[in-house]
Specification:
400 residues; 15 helices; mainly alpha; globular
């Protein structure tokens, strides 16, 4: 039976019409010899079955859209987890990045001490120092800097800067700990309180102090705010030098003394150079993420080699100015005790010249912050000791 069926198929083969002998050799079948009925087809029921499958296929547009979304946190807490007040305060404290405060507090302390030591004399051995103005100015500057840090994180997040850099931002937004709008509100609130407190302090220093304070507030906000921020226009280093150098030092001096002394500018320049070196190390750490986001800093414009040279020059020039202030005859020679910070400077320069990784530059930045803090400390000690050293010949008369 099987043989008969096979014979029937051979007799009715579409390739060999009935009544034609089949050649023993194989024949190549071309498209012209295939009839329409022989083209394999899929029953319509199959398409209907596929269409009935769930879930249905949805088609979405592939057009590019600009959207902002919360990043996925590295650690996801269970839904029933609730943070206590202490945990929330610790989160915000870490987001404020208090380790950066020496940048702004050091020039305020140095400027205030300069004004105080200049008022010390045999007639007034204690000098004139307005402690309330000093504390209020410190608080105002600290609030402005902390608020600027939060504003910086918000606008960097909008521009896609540091979204994948765990060393750069404070982490409130990047780790989805705080909503971006709340970070911005917190930053503006701190800056507003700091600005109001600064206005109260500046009124006692006169119109010039008020102008300096206004410039500081504007620079603090527009350093990172808006798409055309100062830090994105290769002006971040220059603004840092002006604000963390002459501006804050002179402002603190005016609040205490009410006048301007040219020597204050000379003392402020090393502080501004060290602060700029800190910002330069920070930008060398973030140069890759900044370049991808279109943020132009000196580190992204210059090569890595030139960025290292610039960082080294900033530190060396700062110490060179100290030598110019301390070495000449009749100069306050005790300023040379700031050279005790040279080992920290050597470690910082060595790290900047040898490292290539963001983590390495992060350590360089931390060393530079430490360097500025100790540099300002020994500078203040030198100014105080020098002022009272000049009173030693007058001690017998002071006792009487």
């Amino acid at each position: 039976m099987a043989n008969s069926n096979r014979n029937d198929k051979n007799q009715h083969s579409p390739i060999t019409p009935p009544g034609t002998r089949t050649a023993s050799s194989s024949k190549i079948v071309t498209a012209d010899t295939v009839e329409a009925e022989e083209v394999p087809t899929i029953p319509l029921d199959s398409f209907q079955a596929v269409n009935a499958l769930q879930p249905e296929i949805a088609v979405h547009s592939l057009s590019s859209t600009r959207a902002v979304s919360l990043p996925t946190p590295l650690v996801v807490h269970p839904s029933e987890y609730r943070r206590g007040l202490g945990e929330w305060l610790q989160l915000w404290w870490d987001g404020l990045r208090p380790a950066y405060l020496p940048l702004s507090l050091a020039p305020v302390v140095v400027g205030s001490v300069l004004a105080w030591t200049q008022s010390i004399s045999p007639a007034a051995p204690r000098g004139h120092f307005h402690i309330l103005h000093f504390v209020a100015l410190l608080a105002a500057v600290a609030l402005l800097q902390c608020g600027a840090q939060l504003v910086n994180d918000y606008y960097d997040y909008l521009r896609g800067v540091d979204t994948s850099n765990p060393l750069g931002p404070g982490g409130l937004i990047q780790q989805a700990l705080i909503r971006p709008a709340n970070v911005l509100i917190g930053g503006l609130f701190l800056m507003g309180i700091g600005a109001l407190l600064g206005v109260v302090v500046a009124v006692n220093g006169g119109l010039l102090a008020l102008v300096f304070g206004l410039i500081g507030v504007v620079c603090a906000f527009f350093y990172s705010a808006t798409s055309r921020s100062l830090s994105s226009l290769t002006l971040g280093e220059l603004v840092s030098f002006i604000v963390f150098g002459p501006l804050l030092t002179l402002g603190a001096f005016i609040v205490q003394n009410g006048t301007i002394d040219r020597t204050v500018i000379l003392y402020s320049i090393p502080l501004g150079l060290l602060a700029t070196a800190t910002i330069q190390a920070n930008n060398m750490r973030d140069w890759e993420s900044d370049a991808q986001a279109g943020k132009r800093t000196l580190a992204t414009v210059l090569s890595l080699r030139m960025s290292r040279v610039l960082y080294t020059l900033l530190l060396l020039v700062a110490y060179g100015l100290i030598l110019l202030l301390a070495v000449p005859v009749g100069a306050p020679h005790l300023l040379l005790i700031t050279l005790w910070t040279l080992p920290i400077a050597a470690v910082s320069i060595s790290g900047a010249l040898r490292t290539d990784s963001p983590a390495g530059f992060h350590m360089v930045m931390k060393q530079t912050l430490k360097l500025e803090a100790f540099f300002a400390f020994w500078l203040v000690i030198a100014l105080i000791v020098t002022a009272y050293w000049s009173l030693l010949p007058h001690i017998p008369y002071l006792i009487k």
